[in-house]
Amino acid sequence: MNYKYKILNYWNFQDDLYVNYEVEDLKNNDKANVINYYNTSDLDCNYNTASEEEITNSLYRLIERDDGIEFKMPKVSDLSPLLQYVYDWVCQSESDMCHIDYDDWEEIKEDHDFSEEDIKVLYKEVEKYNLDDYITICDGEYKICGYGCLQTMFNDDRTKGSEELER
């Protein structure tokens, strides 16, 4: 085995089972901290009746199939501050979403020193990382919306690591 996995936590959201885990490349000691998701039906046990140990073991079998793909994911540290902000919001939200209306945006701009230039950068990142299904910008009602699977698109390589992701 080339990789060592450690599940940090998991949670069920409408039969999507999100899993926050670390993977270590045993050859070069690189680490990745990611969130992936599976449908509860992907498990080789019944999610509603299985023990926590059975669920965890089944999740390990599922994530091991990825065979290090986590190291090919874009790193959070390479994202713009605004995309990091939206990503963190999605990761920390009970609904696995981020909604920033136009009034919120004005407050966030002040509090975090964002500008309209950051919105332009965010547009470019949405295109670069193929995030059209996970982020909408200026859709009428909201300035920015981030959706649940956004958290599954990146390797959170920041110093704090899983602390930003844990619920």
Largest sheet: number of strands, sense, barrel closure: 3 strands, antiparallel
Total of helices: 4
Helix/strand order: EEEHHEHHEE
Helix content: 25-40%
The structure class reads alpha+beta
Radius of gyration: 17 Å
Q: Trace the largest sheet across and list its strands.
A: 1-2-3
- DSSP E strands, number: 6
In total, the number of domains comes to: 2
Uncertain ranges:
161-167
Shape: globular
* Average pLDDT for all residues: 92
Briefly, what is this?
By secondary structure, this protein is of the alpha+beta class. The chain has helices at residues 52-64, 81-92, 102-112, 116-128; strands at residues 3-13, 16-25, 31-39, 98-101, 135-137, 142-146.
List keywords for this structure.
167 residues, alpha+beta, three-stranded antiparallel β-sheet, 4 helices, 29% helix, globular, disordered C terminus
